[in-house]
Every structure is written in structure tokens, then in C-alpha cells.
Amino acid sequence: MNSSPPATRRTPSDRRKQLPEEVAAYVRELVITGEVKAGDFLRMEPIAEAVGVSNTPVREGLLLLQSEGFVQLVPRRGFIVAPFTPGDVQDLFWAQARLGGELAARAAKRITPEAIARLEANIEEYERAAEAGDTRSLAELGHLFHRELNLAAGSRRLALLLGTVVKQLPNQFYATIEGQVDNARSEHPLLLDALKNGDTRKARSVFEKHIQGSAARLIETLEKRGMWAEEQQAS
């Protein structure tokens, strides 16, 4: 007898709630990767076509991004990209490092052998994906590693707070940042060792170093792309 729970059917209303989030995720990636720059107007039609939605969820998604500070609404003209500075990058990663570091420390106290086994399997899969140059799998596996770690902490509210920060950071773009994959390959195993040994201090410090290093690499990558070239020339 199949004892697995029945699959949850997604209703049209559920799907409608997700559409603005899909738009917001798409535009966030454009902003954080430097594909669009401060002051650029965001036309709804190209965004709707890229995401595969109508203009209504595009507007709702852009309003979400306005509340996060990624875009600004200019009356009678539309949405423009808000300034996004190296300091903004550092602040986002600082928040992730502190919240995630606390979760890592808590996970070291209570992680189960089953969760350890899943993290070990994840690291092995990450190695194979890195050898194959599979950036899409690398991004997904990196996300799953951190998700498993957060769940192991058993602190739902803190994990939700972390989620509000992490969604503002790049996803697919991560694996293309120079040095990012090598960093994960070396530091995920170190973090796993700390979890196995129940070493809360090391778990926290390794996690914070891991995330802060990502901030520095992202800023360097965006500088090479010329994201802040105009601001630097003006100063």
C-alpha cells in the first residue's frame, strides 16, 4: 500500500499568487547581475514575454521590488531601476552571514545522522557537477545544501527571516562568479565536519566566512562588468 501523502493540487488562485514572485525573481536577477542599471526604465511588455505572463502580474511583481528597494515608480512614466551599490551587496550578504551563521551553530547541536548523510550526498553531487561544468545543477545543489542546513537548525522563524534576505540575492548567476564554485567545494566539507563534530563555534565561523567571501567575489564580478563604472568616473 502506498503510504505517501497525496500530491497537493495547485489551484488557479495559488498560481496567480506565484506569478508576481516569478516576475520579481526575474527582474532581481537582471538588477543584481548588472543586466539593467540604475535609471533604466523597465518596460512591462518585454518582461511579460520573458516570464510568460500578462502585464498584470508584471506590475504586481515590480511593486514587490519597489518595497524591497530594487525599483522606483516614477508617476506617469513607469518603473525604473533603483541605485544598487557595493554597500547594498555587502549589507545583504552581512545579513545572510549573521542569520545563517546562527542557524549553522544551532544545526551543529541537533543535526541528525540522516541529515548528515544528505549533506554528504549533496557534496558528492556538487563535485560531479563541478567537474562537468554544469552551472545549473551547481546553483540548485548549492541552494539545497543551505536549505538542508537551515532545516537541521530547527528554527523555523529564523529560517523564514533568512529567506527574506536570500531571495534578494542572485541564484543562477552564483555558479558563474569567478571562484564561487571552488569556494563551495572547499568550505561545504569544512562546514559538514563542524556539524558532525557538534562544533557550534566552527560551524558559525565557517559559514560566515563562506558567505562574506561570496559578497567580495560578487562585487568584483560586477565591477568587471562595468556595473558602477559611471559612478566611479563621476567621483
UniProtKB/TrEMBL annotation:
It comes from the Bacteria. Residues 17-84 form the HTH gntR-type domain. GO terms for molecular function: DNA binding; DNA-binding transcription factor activity. This is GntR family transcriptional regulator. The keyword Transcription applies. Keywords: DNA-binding, Transcription, Transcription regulation. The keyword DNA-binding applies. It comes from Streptomyces brevispora.
